[in-house]
Amino acid sequence: MxxxxxxxFVITIFNHELSEKSSEKCITTARDIGGxxxxxxxxxTKYESQGLINDLGIKVLDELYGWCDRESAxxxxxxxxxxxxxxxxxxxxxxxxxxDCVFTSKYHDEYFDGVMVIGDDLWSPDVEKDLSHYKKVxxxxxxxxxxxxxxxxxxxxxxxxxxxxxxLWGLKGTHxxxxxxxxxxxxxxxxxxxxxxxxxxFMNRDNxxxxxxxxxxxxxxxxxxxxxxxxxxxxxxxxxxxxxxxxWENHYDT
Length: 254
Fold this sequence. Notes:
By secondary structure, the chain is α/β, with parallel strands linked by helices. Helix content is 33%, strand content 19%.
């Protein structure tokens, strides 16, 4: 099968010291280790996100945003959203990377008409060892096929517990994936017609297909978070990740 064009972007908060430095590491490791040319994509900042949410008429499912800085989370979501729009406009597959993504091995392209996860995340690397919950597409590509009761759950009934019970329902981080125009179009429709949740909860098997490549080619090197707040004791105490409002104010060149 001849694969159509793949473009790769890393979401970067321009003029933000931490984000720019992280993105440069992502670009360097992607080139030198992953064999990819990655370009920066200008992130939507927390200072402009609420206005765009209002302008686009996007409904926010508020009960799921208690753990984070809302405007920062909106900015993260919208940064991906506009990349989905670019994917549809160009009709090319795109690889979406967040600034804390680091490559560890060479990327070998695969085609999957859905969201294809390419990296391990901070929360639960390689979470599912039981391959009976996957459909093996080829030796490197596995489609998520868990049939547990939580498949089909609507977001407005979700408090995140479904992610603990069903490890193959929704993403556990959005730092590295490849998406097709068909799937991007579905996520855009969902954004504008159903309302949004935090991005990894939003990207689930309710209406899109998800797969992953094995072995993974990158991971999330999260030393800080511009979305999490002091309420997230797991990140602060268990993972040693720096969180808080000061990370924005002290490192953003306004």
